[in-house]
Amino acid sequence: MLIFSPLKWTIQLYRIVLYDTQPLAGEGYDLWQGDGAMAVAKLLMIVGDYVEDYEVMVPFQALQMVGHTVDAVCPNKKKGQHVRTAIHDFEGDQTYSEKPGHNFVLNATFADVHMESYDGLVIPGGRAPEYLRLNEKVLEIVRYFVKADKPIAAICHAAQILAAAGVISGKQVSCYPACSPEVVLAGGKFAALEVTDAITDGKLVTAPAWPAHPTWLAQFQEVLLRHLAAKSNQVEV
């Protein structure tokens, strides 16, 4: 289990982008390919109507920025269609406020998903997990990634899907605090973090809400690269 600061990752990324250099040696970041290029993953992102705006837009763009492929899908929708998003904000009320967000365009079709072809799974929060967890195919996909020991990044209300899939027993899981009873009832251990923090337990990376994006994505990136390095070593053998 790991609670990780993104500072070293930020330094490494700046070195690569600004100076076109190798990552610093001896810092635990020897997860690059032999030609100096960073290993990249093919990721599946499951979204639905009224997914949280930041929690879908930011990881979708940021993960592509570092070279990964991200296929965003929604049950019963096709590539080119969109889902509506909701903006959840923290403005001093007893719970989050909710405002209309953007339309988010899907770049892949849910019915065409072949789980085995993906290296990792991303599940944003918002309203969408409330109904996505009722879809048996969504739960099947989540269970596949857990059984295959592939990285999963889940944030905020995404814990509702993890709980419904029955995959968090004994795991440290962060989520929006209002979802914590579901985590506990599913056998998980609720990690009460600051809203800007994230936690990694094995290959599961979770966080409370979008203010944790820098830490959450940095942790997921590290888990992804270690997974890809291990996968590459297996292929070479």
Task: Describe this entry's structure for a reader.
- The chain has 237 residues and is α/β, with parallel strands linked by helices.
- It has seven helices and eleven strands.
- The chain has helices spanning 7-19, 53-65, 128-132, 136-147, 159-165, 180-185, 213-236; strands at residues 42-46, 51-52, 69-73, 82-89, 97-105, 120-123, 152-155, 172-173, 189-190, 199-201, 204-207.
- The strands form three sheets. Strands 3-1-6-7-11-10 form a six-stranded mixed sheet, with helices on both faces. It has a three-stranded mixed sheet with strand order 2-4-5, covered by helices on one side.
- Strand 8 (172-173), helix 6 and strand 9 form a beta-alpha-beta unit.
- The longest helix has 24 residues, at 213-236.
- The two termini are 28 Å apart.
Task: Chart the SSEs and their pairings.
Layout: H1 7-19, E1 42-46, E2 51-52, H2 53-65, E3 69-73, E4 82-89, E5 97-105, E6 120-123, H3 128-132, H4 136-147, E7 152-155, H5 159-165, E8 172-173, H6 180-185, E9 189-190, E10 199-201, E11 204-207, H7 213-236
Parallel strand pairs: 1-3, 1-6, 2-4, 6-7, 7-11, 8-9
Antiparallel strand pairs: 4-5, 10-11
Helix pairs in contact: 4-5
